[in-house]
């Protein structure tokens, strides 16, 4: 299982943000993504800003497009909480599908996707 090491995740992201974001592109398993999401939730605002500047929202946008009702509530809630915590600006959304995907999820009116409404309103 891919494991960034909770204590090392923020340090690795700050030291080599491009490689860190690239490594997340290759994470395909829900449990491994959840580890990454939990690590990012604990990151400082400065670290999250670096994550966004290095293309992290594109990775999360790809993960969003792969969501389906088979994902567990813990994963969906953690993912939505991370999206809400990110200091997303309009420049991050210009060439990224994350906002559009959140709007599509909202239109589905599926209660499993309800947590994703808050980041959509925040952005």
Summarize this structure as a short list of keywords or feature phrases:
123 residues; mainly alpha; 9 helices; 68% helix; globular
Structural commentary:
Helix 1 (6-15) packs across helix 3 (30-41). It is built from nine helices and no strands. It is globular and about 40 Å long. The protein is an all-alpha fold.
Helical amount: 55-70%
Q: How would you characterize the largest beta sheet?
A: none
Unreliable stretches, pLDDT < 50, 5 or more residues? Answer: none
Number of strands: 0
Radius of gyration computed on alpha carbons: 13 Å
Alpha plus pi helix count: 9
Structural class: mainly alpha
Mean pLDDT: 88
**What is the rounded distance between the termini?**
32 Å
User: Any idea what the shape is?
Assistant: globular
Order of helices and strands: HHHHHHHHH
Chain-wise SSE layout:
Layout: H1 6-15, H2 17-25, H3 30-41, H4 45-53, H5 56-65, H6 73-85, H7 90-93, H8 98-108, H9 117-122
Short description:
With 123 residues, the protein is mainly α. It is 68% helix and 0% strand.
């Amino acid at each position: 299982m891919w494991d960034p090491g909770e204590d090392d995740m923020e340090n690795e992201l700050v030291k080599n943000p491009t490689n860190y974001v690239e490594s997340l592109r290759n994470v395909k398993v829900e449990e491994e993504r959840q580890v990454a999401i939990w690590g990012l939730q604990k990151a400082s605002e400065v670290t999250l800003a670096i994550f966004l500047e290095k293309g992290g929202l594109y990775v999360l946008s790809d993960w969003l497009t792969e969501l389906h009702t088979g994902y567990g509530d813990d994963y969906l809630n953690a993912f939505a909480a991370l999206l809400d915590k990110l200091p997303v600006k309009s420049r991050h959304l210009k060439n990224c599908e994350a906002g559009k995907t959140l709007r599509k999820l909202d239109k589905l009116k599926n209660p499993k996707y309800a947590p994703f409404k808050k980041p959509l309103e925040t952005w």
